[in-house]
């Protein structure tokens, strides 16, 4: 079964306050991965796939800022692992939208 993970990777101690180049470099890793789905959001990236695949991709993404010259990286991962039914990004959003529309 698939999990949904929210990932935020922050390089620390860089020469600039901007992180967009690091985010873009991390997303190149995602573009190469065929076994997951992902969605860029303004504050993080959402990844959907099998747990082992998601954790493997996150590890590769965590390495990217180091490869780009960062000396310290802080990575936050939040995983939703539901085992009683299939879990998708769209399904989670749809469930909330349906409840909003009922009111």
Number of helices: 3
CATH architectural group = 2-Layer Sandwich
Measured on Cα atoms, how large is the radius of gyration? 15 Å
Give the ordered list of helices and strands.
EHEEHEH
- The name of the CATH topology is Alpha-Beta Plaits
Instruction: Please count the beta strands (DSSP E, at least 2 residues each).
Output: 4
Strands of the widest sheet, in order across it, are 2-3-1-4
* CATH top level label: Alpha Beta
Task: Determine the mean pLDDT.
Answer: 95
Biggest sheet architecture: 4 strands, antiparallel
Question: How many structural domains?
Answer: 1
Beta-strand share of residues: 25-35%
Distance linking N and C termini: 32 Å
Secondary structure blueprint with pairings:
Blueprint: E1 2-12, H1 20-32, E2 37-40, E3 45-50, H2 51-67, E4 72-80, H3 89-102
Antiparallel strand pairs: 1-3, 1-4, 2-3
Could you explain the architecture of this structure?
Strands 2-3-1-4 form a 4-stranded antiparallel β-sheet, with helices on one face. The protein has helices at residues 20-32, 51-67, 89-102, and strands at residues 2-12, 37-40, 45-50, 72-80. Helix 1 (20-32) packs across helix 2. The protein starts with a strand and ends with a helix. With 103 residues, it is α+β, with helices and mostly antiparallel strands. It has one domain (2-102): Alpha-Beta Plaits. It contains 3 helices and 4 strands; from the N terminus they run βαββαβα. It holds the Pfam family Thiamine_BP. Belongs to the UPF0045 family. This is MTH1187 family thiamine-binding protein. It comes from Heliorestis acidaminivorans.
